[in-house]
């Protein structure tokens, strides 16, 4: 009896002890979970409030100052013409005090395109419209009124300071010139614009290196309409291949997707393509997904050559794991409507000819100057030797001119042709022209000075302001590239002398966070974040339209 009682007491004690422990554990666990949950909830509320505030501010811009003949100091207000609406020109416009000049922006594209996420558009990871921002919206948020003309700059007279513009609308990649995007190009509106300052930010076009068949048969990935073209081509190949029996040569060819160029654009697109095949196509058409082969062709022995060495092998490893075939040290020689003819350099120094049948070919090998840039090479004596971009001085002023600046991919500064460089150059010219406007006002004040004392005071201010004008100095912040399978590589720069090279899933989160931060508007940030959330829930959209 007593032993039974003792057992019951013990068991009750054990029970009550175990209840106390589990309660304590639960409390500790709850507390532990609560900290990140609370922090996450507070973070989400703060981020949403901040984003909401930004979107509201952007949607309701302040009243702008109208364009006028004179500045507030009474000097003649100068005409500033900006060519282009890309990274260089849009960044410049965004940071410019547009009330200091009568500003006109000329571009065949009435929007800014956030190119870093363009490789995500054809596969439906990102909606194409999420990565554009109307140039008029950017202009509307600046202090002074801006005129926008949807037109191409077609000619320039640097002695008369005029630029000829002709009505035009976005072209696909500038190589094929297939699609003007406008139904009204036949009446060809043309006008000569007079400028006091001209900023040339016309970018570059994809280069084909003159390889036969590339311009005719390849798709490019440079402009927004290119992404629609690539998507359509990819889905055409998939749907057509489904009509052929498994194992047929034609089905194999249609499902061979070849990407040429192992730089960030080619690598990111190949990674996105394989993600789409593995995560989406596999769900809907598994028998087709199994037969798709993505091949990345690169003339050098590695992909992502601008990144640090250890990231080359990491990218190769991810590609191997995800079944992307790498054709390295392989140069394309000729392209027909169905086959890429290439030559590979083997380790023993010999070469091997390759034939790669393809359904879709995407060409991402770098830049060549646009027609307008080449025209400037020809028309300005100091530019006659230029090949890759306009030659500029330390203030980004075009050699051989007094009042023309070049920014971004159309300028040759020794820096890589990236959005990061173009953005900093745009900001620099904006600041430079702000100082120039202040100098103009001071010179006007000097001309009105009534005595030598007043003159010397103004002259001192002029000299001081002139000494503040610094040459352009590029600050490299690092480089990022998505490699597929939710992995990215990054060369991150901390301060002047230290840097980190990293690759993996955490880097992928850094990649995403950086791209959100780099978006040009709060609206763009929100749309990109929604797109990523949307594909996590619903998957990518595989419909053609
Ligand atoms: C797919 C892709 C991904 C990229 N990813 C990155 C990245 O992750 N990070 C990075 O730093 N860089 C990236 N880049 C490079 C970056 O986009 C370019 O370096 C950058 O766009 C250059 O800016 P830009 O202003 O010189 O030219 P663009 O941005 O190309 O803009 C040129 C503008 O000029 C207009 N234009 C063309 N001809 C005329 C004319 N005759 N008259 C008037 N206007 C004209 C065009 O319509 C366009 O608006 C990427 C590029 C591509 C294609």
From TrEMBL:
Enzyme Commission numbers on file: 1.6.5.9
Molecular function terms from GO: NADH dehydrogenase (quinone) (non-electrogenic) activity
Domain FAD/NAD(P)-binding, chain residue ranges per copy: 78-426
Span of domain External alternative NADH-ubiquinone oxidoreductase-like C-terminal: 476-541
Cellular component GO terms, alphabetical: mitochondrion
Domain of life: Eukaryota
Keyword Transit peptide recorded: yes
Family according to the record: Belongs to the NADH dehydrogenase family.
Protein name: NADH:ubiquinone reductase (non-electrogenic)
Species assigned in the record: [Candida] arabinofermentans NRRL YB-2248
């Amino acid at each position: 009896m007593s032993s039974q009682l003792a057992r019951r007491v013990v068991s009750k004690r054990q029970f009550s002890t175990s209840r106390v422990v589990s309660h304590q554990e639960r409390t500790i666990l709850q507390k532990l979970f609560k900290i990140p949950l609370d922090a996450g909830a507070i973070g989400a509320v703060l981020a949403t409030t901040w984003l909401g505030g930004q979107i509201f501010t952007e949607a309701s811009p302040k009243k702008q100052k109208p364009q006028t003949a004179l500045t507030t100091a009474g000097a003649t207000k100068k005409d500033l013409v900006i060519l282009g609406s890309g990274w260089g020109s849009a960044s410049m416009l965004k940071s410019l005090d547009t009330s200091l000049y009568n500003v006109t922006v000329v571009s065949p594209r009435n929007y800014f395109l956030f190119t870093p996420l363009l490789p995500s558009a054809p596969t439906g990871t990102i909606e194409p419209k999420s990565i554009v921002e109307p140039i008029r919206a950017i202009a509307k948020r600046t202090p002074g009124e801006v005129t926008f003309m949807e037109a191409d700059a077609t000619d320039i007279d640097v002695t008369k300071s005029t630029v000829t513009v002709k009505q035009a609308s976005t072209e696909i990649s500038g190589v094929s010139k297939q699609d003007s995007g406008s139904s009204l190009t036949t009446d060809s509106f043309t006008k000569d614009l007079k400028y006091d300052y001209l900023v040339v930010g016309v970018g570059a076009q994809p280069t084909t290196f003159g390889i036969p068949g590339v311009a005719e048969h390849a798709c490019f990935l440079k402009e927004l309409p290119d992404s629609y073209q690539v998507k359509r081509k990819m889905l055409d190949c998939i749907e057509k291949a489904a009509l052929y029996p498994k194992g047929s040569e034609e089905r194999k060819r249609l499902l061979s997707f070849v990407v040429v160029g192992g730089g960030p654009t080619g690598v990111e697109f190949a990674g996105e393509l394989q993600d789409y095949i593995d995560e989406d196509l596999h769900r809907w058409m598994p028998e087709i997904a199994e037969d798709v082969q993505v091949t990345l062709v690169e003339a050098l022995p590695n992909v992502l050559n601008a990144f640090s060495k250890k990231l080359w092998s990491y990218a190769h490893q991810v590609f191997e794991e995800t079944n992307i075939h790498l054709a390295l040290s392989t140069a394309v020689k000729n392209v027909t409507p169905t086959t890429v003819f290439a030559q590979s350099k083997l380790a023993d120094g010999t070469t091997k000819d390759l034939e790669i049948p393809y359904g879709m070919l995407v060409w991402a090998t770098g830049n060549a100057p646009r027609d307008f840039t080449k025209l400037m090479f020809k028309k300005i004596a100091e530019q006659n030797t230029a090949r890759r971009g306009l030659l500029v001085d330390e203030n980004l002023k075009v050699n051989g001119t007094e009042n023309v600046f070049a920014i971004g991919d159309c300028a040759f500064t020794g820096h890589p042709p990236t959005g990061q460089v173009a953005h900093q150059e745009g900001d620099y010219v904006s600041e430079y022209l702000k100082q120039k406007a202040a100098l103009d006002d001071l010179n006007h004040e000097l001309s009105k000075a009534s005595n030598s004392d007043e003159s010397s005071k103004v002259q001192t201010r002029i000299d001081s302001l002139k000494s503040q004008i610094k040459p352009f100095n590029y600050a490299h912040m690092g480089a990022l590239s998505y490699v597929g399978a939710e992995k990215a590589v990054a060369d991150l720069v901390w301060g002047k002398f230290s840097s980190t090279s990293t690759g993996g899933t955490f880097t992928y989160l850094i990649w995403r966070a950086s791209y959100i931060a780099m978006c040009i508007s709060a609206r763009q940030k929100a749309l990109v974040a929604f797109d990523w959330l949307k594909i996590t829930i619903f998957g990518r959209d595989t419909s053609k339209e």
